[in-house]
Amino acid sequence: MARPGLLMGSQNFPFEQQKELAVSICSFLSRYRHISDSYVIEFFTEGLWETLPPGWQEALSDLSPPQIADLLLDSAPKNGRSYASVWPLSLLAFRATAHALAFPRMLCGPDAVPAEFQENQCQSSLLGHIFRKHVKPKKQHEIRRLGPVVKKLCDLTGCDTLVDVGSGQGHLTRFLSFGLGLSVTGIEADPALVSMASKFDEQLLCTLHKESQRKNGTAVRSLSVIGPSPRHVTGWVNPRASWEEFTKLLVQRREEEENGLDGAKGQVDRRGQGESMSNPHQELNCQCQPVHRKGPSSCSSCGRTELDFPQRGTGHTAHAQGLNCRSWQHRTQPHQMCDSTEPSPDCSQNCCTEDMEQSNSGLTPTKSSAAQFKQNKMANNGFKDTAGPVKDLCCGLTPTVHSSSGTAGQANGHQQGVGFILTGLHACGDLSATLLRHFASCPQVRGITSVACCYMKLTTPDNPTPPGVLALSDSVHKGQGEGTGFGYPMSSWVQGLAGHQLSYKAREGACHALEDYAQRLRTQSGLLKSHCYRAALETVIRRAAPGLRRAGIQTIKKAHELPFVEYARLGLQRVGLSPDLPLDHAGLDAMLCQQGRVVAYFSLALLLAPVIETLVLLDRILFLQEKGLTTQLLPLFDPQFSPRNLVLLAAKTGQEGGQHNPIQ
């Protein structure tokens, strides 16, 4: 039987070509490993400029930042390329190969780039205010784009039940549930985030209740039109556990709830959910004070806590069909979301604080006609849908039939309501790989949407416990089933390729935002000083403490606006050294004059980042292909907002018939 192919957007990518691409990437990265594995802060201490071929040094040394953006990072500059000197063929080949091997990252189609932040940089014009509250612009953009794709996958598989793993404060969960009428359970390891998610749900219901009263007088209309309340669960997904253990935990907690073992905690978790939705005419206990508490980091998949599944409310109705439509528009100018010193990994990007918006619109009565519902939905709940780029995203993604014996073939039907969909928006490190393994092996998981991040936290055979990752015991590493593998590589094909190894630094580099850095180059941002400052400071640290290498220095606020002497004083304090160490001012001035070279070298390393990410994602795609599953990869988000913008989708239908669904 022929292997299923990969759909890259609307283009078919046969299995054999995927394997050939993996071979080419491994060969290419092996040749330039000295660049991808280097740390730019060691530019002076390790003589990184001298590691480049002389011809490369001559071609790159005198380029301005905009020239570096156009000649190196941009695959197709709008105004073409103009060279000040003849570039060596090896450098031209390096650039061309890096661009050719990477998966496309830009949104495709004439209406693909949203103009949602042109009017207000902190509020998406395509997302209703009830879904913008407490949500940063980056996350607004992501949930607005991903939500309809998840709904499309649910329609394709006949499932309206989802598990959102790594759900954080529940922003995506809330939109999928209240906004698109799906039955959603959010699993999050951090109990503080779970508590905030439940609180935000209550605030949303309270806001709708008040708006309904304002529009309809004292009569409180049915709230079931907005969809069911989500469940927010505190739980840690063990990356080494098998899918049987994963579903067993779901069933176990469900049985405990049914037997009344959840106690008072379940009653607290269910406030504003089951009770409020089961009787839409009852008076809500509204406590709509804004929550100003700052939540922990969004990458919280590594904290082990007790798994807890609150009771599901009874009010489940889906009203996603009547969404009003509005076309995506081009953004004429790229929008820079924040002014950080690094093109930072996706999960740590800072965005503007949202300006809350209130609306006087109310709810549509449940008995309104479909035409009335379609006409008023945007005003009622803020659904400003854009069917254009979304409606065809899953076209061509044919669900794969998996029988209980594990054989795969093309779908010829499916059973409505059996199983569930897994989704993970920027699931950190091994978590995204774990979800793919569960999807491939668990017959109850019918589909998946996977957006990865934090590749440096992936476990590998060479580095089973990378920095920042919870060390698992030997007994956990020796788990059963599909959970025994590492985060990378997953596929047998990539694992067998020479040069497939990716260092921690290479994977960390793949998390940086090439598009954001290119914009800094074009605008000649003062932030470009940051790498040169840090590299010069490294020489000072090494002279004072030779054993202190690449010491962590938290971001110094507005470092690029400081004189280097002041920057050095603050940096030395942060690594435990005296801020009054004598400085070689002449030597440091000579280093700071080489800022252009530092920027050029970092740009070379950054050009490899999309290639490394492509290999990681291609390995996951090949893993699913080896299991007989068809996949689709989409550049769904604007990379200016969300650097980790590639979404992996896959679907299957089962013939297990009547299998127990542990999350219903």
Task: Characterise the protein shown here.
The chain has 664 residues and is α/β, with parallel strands linked by helices. It folds into two domains: 1-101 and 483-510 and 512-643, no CATH class; 122-313 and 365-398 and 419-454, no CATH class. Helix content is 39%, strand content 9%. The protein contains 23 helices and eleven strands. Strands 1, 2, 3, 4, 5, 6, 7, 8, 9, 10 and 11 form an eleven-stranded mixed beta sheet that branches. Helix 9 links the parallel strand 4 and strand 5. Helix 7 packs across helix 8. The longest helix is centred in the last third of the chain and has 32 residues, at 595-626. The two termini are 36 Å apart.
> Helix share of residues?
25-40%
Q: Alpha-carbon distance between the termini? A: 36 Å
The secondary-structure class comes to alpha/beta
Shape descriptor reads globular
Report the total helices: 23
The proportion of strand residues reads 5-15%
Our count of domains comes out at 2
Please, what is the average pLDDT? 74
The main pleated sheet reads as:
11 strands, mixed
**Number of E-type strands:** 11
Q: What's the alpha carbon Rg, rounded to whole Å?
A: 26 Å
Low-confidence stretches: 109-113, 218-225, 261-391, 403-417, 474-484, 655-664
